[in-house]
Amino acid sequence: MMESVTGLTIQISGIALIAVLSFFLTRSIRRTFLDYWTAAWSCLAVALLSLGIGFHFSDFRFPLYGLYFFLEYAFGLLLIAGCQNYATGVSISRRHLYALAAAVALPCLLLRISKSFDVLLIPHAAIVAGLYAWAFKSLGASRRQEKPSPGLRVVRLALALLALDFAHYVLLLAYVRVNTRVLPLAYLRYTSIYDLILELLLGFGMVMLVMDHAIREVEDANRELIEARDRLEVLARIDPLTEALNRHAFYSLMDASRGSVDQDASGCAVVLDIDNLKPINDSLGHAAGDEAIRRVAVAIRSVIRSDDLLFRWGGDEFLILLFNISESAAHARVTEIDASLARTRLPGLEEPVSLIVSYGLSAFSVLSDLEAAIHEADGAMYARKQSRKAG
């Protein structure tokens, strides 16, 4: 195993760089699974360093071998914890602590089996392969819950290859041990390099996964902001009492129509006012007055079409825009409102009351004439109201 010291040195440097990169990522991106993975890479870097020192100093070899085994198991367990946290959101629990206790006991058990590192490496490689397979399986839950991202695919590929890599060590070292063969020198020199390539693939995939997760959270936050903005825009254009459009909505529609090439919309504008709202407010209170306004809005909706527009124009005034309709047909629809308001029940009254409305109507042939038509309809409504009072 001394032949692999050069490759091991290179591997230590590579793993240390991954640990440093992960640490700096944790400074700017706060994710629990990233914290677990950073701790995992740190454990692996120290584990490999202890193994390299053990190869050089025979007096401390076995304690350092034990430290190497323990830290590699800690690396595997922290790797699994990070994968589980990413996939399901769970954090380290008592079950993980039990597994960590086993990671402490296993090196002691291995060192009692044999004094040969080649022999100890066989069960150790089997355990590490199992840890990589466990981490691979842990990410399966995330794959089922969401469309796999490129980073998730790379991490799962790296975990699968690392599990196979350490499983091949088990088979190869067992074969060599049973048949008393010697591994080729070229193989020993480069095993750590092969491991490092797969570990770099895993680290690269983790960085991709963290960035994918951060981008997805930013997109989700932007989507929520857009939805909140849309809800606020709707609320800003809707009268809360009657759920009709308000003046702000009307002028927004007019501004939008001015930039449109389609100005040929025609129809009738109707301005409608409740005549007897003040006596209701004075005698029954504003709750009854509000209910009267709501009832009028309901009555208007019952006679207009889905393409027509209803606006609450003022306190007890409404604006109705009837499109593609003649004046006579519009008059016929609006006059139906009186009949539906003849027996209106209001809070505070046992008997129904008759709500009285006055309206004015004016036709328009293009949208640019709409405001003039509204002004004319408002004048007609006021004249009708005055004539009723005089009568």
Task: Provide a short characterization of the protein structure.
This protein folds into 2 domains: 226 residues, Rhopdopsin 7-helix transmembrane proteins; 144 residues, Alpha-Beta Plaits (2-Layer Sandwich), CATH 3.30.70. The protein is 72% helix and 7% strand. It is built from 13 helices and 4 strands.
Task: Annotate the secondary structure layout.
Layout: H1 5-28, H2 32-56, H3 61-88, H4 94-113, H5 117-138, H6 140-145, H7 150-178, H8 185-237, H9 247-258, E1 267-274, H10 277-284, H11 286-303, E2 309-312, E3 317-323, H12 327-340, E4 357-364, H13 370-390
Antiparallel strand pairs: 1-3, 1-4, 2-3
Helix pairs in contact: 1-2, 1-8, 2-3, 3-4, 3-5, 5-7, 7-8, 10-11, 11-12
Structure description:
With 391 residues, this protein is an alpha+beta fold. The protein has two domains: 2-227, Rhopdopsin 7-helix transmembrane proteins (Up-down Bundle); 247-390, Alpha-Beta Plaits (2-Layer Sandwich), CATH 3.30.70.270. Helices cover 72% and strands 7% of the residues. It has 13 helices and four strands. It has helices spanning 5-28, 32-56, 61-88, 94-113, 117-138, 140-145, 150-178, 185-237, 247-258, 277-284, 286-303, 327-340, 370-390; strands at 267-274, 309-312, 317-323, 357-364. Helix 1 packs antiparallel against helix 2 and helix 5 packs antiparallel against helix 7. The longest helix has 53 residues, at 185-237. The protein is rod-shaped and about 120 Å long.
Number of DSSP-assigned strands:
4
CATH topology of the largest domain: Rhopdopsin 7-helix transmembrane proteins
What share of the residues does DSSP label as strand, in percent? Answer: 5-15%
Specify the overall morphology: rod-shaped
Count of DSSP-assigned helices = 13
